[in-house]
Model the fold of this input.
Amino acid sequence: MKWFWRIFFTIALLAGWGILGYFFMDFTLGSPERTEPVAVEIPKNTSLKQVGKILEEKQIIRRSYCFGLYVFLKQKTNLQAGNYLIEPDEDIDQILEKFSKGEENVVTVTIPEGWDAIKIANRLEKEKEDFDKEKFLALLNSKKPKYNFEVNIPQNPDRPFKLEGYLFPSTYDFPKTASEEEIINIMLGQFAQRVEKLKIRDRLNQNEPEKGMTLDKLVTIASLVEREGKAKQEYPRITGVIYNRLHSTDNQKLRIDATFLYVTQLKEEWKNIPFHQLKYKKHPYNTYQVKGLPPGPIANPGEEALRAALEPERHSYQYYVTKGDGSGEHYFAETYEQHNQYIKMSNANQAQREQKN
Done:
């Protein structure tokens, strides 16, 4: 009878280990609680081990220890590269089914910092199927507010797009089925996150960066900085020049080229006008002609530009001109005479670069 008990205990031990292994695998491949969809990219030539690591990093599964074994047991080893959106209620089996069929359900779109609404619409039209560019642009003026900051954006007829400046630049994984309004709200949601991250509301209430500053004015200044600056380390200094000009006892004209170049995106007939002539064209966004800030943002700024608008460098500079040496940096001047000297240096640097090329 001893042999019977030996076999019995061996089988019981193996069964116990099997049950324990099952529960361990089930636990590790289970998902922590999720309330939002998660975008997942599976690059080409990604191994099963790497796919498991990706899912673990995205917190879709708890641990990837047993992922390869589970995929092998389920005979789903033919996982296909692509961009996927994993819904909160999808379990590991549904995810493997999606990966094995290659059912991509998101489109990845990169929106660079400093792009305006029209450029963004053009990019989305190119990248996303069934995207209605004109509807998208119209919704920037007419959609129902989802976030509190939308309610406080001024209603100004001179603004071509009310939500210009608030479409936060980033790389997005938009659901393929997302409507134009849903896309806008996703981008506005990213902007709202930066408002919280930078504590912009609290700082404005504390009269930072100055008394009377509003979120819309701050975004407008950030958009000017984003379009004027190339070297991010100069953003606070450029912002300081803008504030100095706004408070100048001279004429308070910003004289920023990017503002009337923005108009060329809106007025087709202006695109062929020589650069030096554009500054004399009258338009609410031409800061060579109007005092103070333009009616609204001229682009959609990123986090660094927003931070610079909130934290300007304090100095006495009134002018800046690109160095023309390919660095993207600027010469800064306190007087117009010094500024003219720097313009000559900039032109010389540019000429020297062209000779080398």
Observations:
- The longest strand covers residues 38-42.
- Residues 2-28 form the longest helix (27 residues).
- The chain is about 50% helix and 10% strand.
- The beta strands are 38-42, 82-86, 106-110, 171-175, 319-322, 330-333.
